[in-house]
Input
Amino acid sequence: MIVGVFGGGAVGLAAGIVLARAGLETQLIDPQGFETVSPTGEADTRVWALGPRAIELLERLGCPIEGDRVTAYQRMRVIDSGSDAAIQFGPDRLGVIVEADWVRAALIAVAKRTPKLSLHTKNGQALSLRGDTVTESSLDVSFEAVILAEGRRATLATSLGFDKIVTAQGYQALVGTLACTEPHRGEAFQIFTAEGPLALLPLPDHNGNPRVSVVWSMADAEATSLQSVDAEALARRLTQASEQARGVLTWVRPSQWMPIGQHHLNRDALGPCLAIGDTSHGIFPLAGLGANLGFADVCAIERAVSAHRSFDPGRFARTVARERRLEHLTTARVMALLQSTFVSTDPWMRLLRSAVFRGVDRIAPVKTLFQQLAG
Output
């Protein structure tokens, strides 16, 4: 039996390692290949806030999340710019901030020395399901099971018969690495601005100077307006929008704008095919939920392959899909609600936001639930 994993991002790599360690002949296929260079110098613009589930999975796979490019954060402060309401998470360790490429490089190193796992640099165009096997016209092999971890494009998933349902579009996110004049002290900060949620995530100091990563999500119209200003003016706008929570902000790496939105597939399993990660549930980049949900999918794969002596592809795909579907849909709807609610200027909505923030901050079980959703 051969299992094909399409997509060589961190989630696809983790899934391939888990399947190969379970004794399944696994081929991991990605058009970009698997040669990578670990980040050096200033932190990269794309970082993840990984929670306990993701960290524990990566450690089981042989990728300890530690070192001078990893920042543990003990607290998270979330405020609403339209009121005086706030939520404080912590003081226990909540997770770590780490560069996505750093995690991928570590997983590639593990994958290359994992028996029964082979890496292929190929560009799959379309998959077809015939009976109990999956084929791709340009690949000289058939698969008895397929994991789709190709990212938000979901091109191969739709070619197989999955339907991609877009629930929110027309948004962008500003990402980048900034120097700040106030130390973060291991706190992740998030403020819901009039444009959209703005997060400043703690990064390792660089030459003794504090650094943060920004993720500011907003609609296309607001993004287009900000894209017309120069880098220095944009940094001043960030300093103002973040209410100087980290003092004065200045760019140390060029910022980037990324298209974002939300979608899900009409199903996560189709015969012996299973969609995971951003392929099955693309959400807004809030609190690191996208990466954490993807790694939670891999944890479900890990449990499913260890639960039975024999591997039945169809039953395996259904088992993982059933376990993960509720969390996928719940998280996506909560994120969409937050994204739309917190840009409202209606005074009654502001009062409701303030009441919700105060309620969440005072009720420990609700705060715990939010932290569990985040990873």
Summary: The first helix runs from residue 10 to 21.
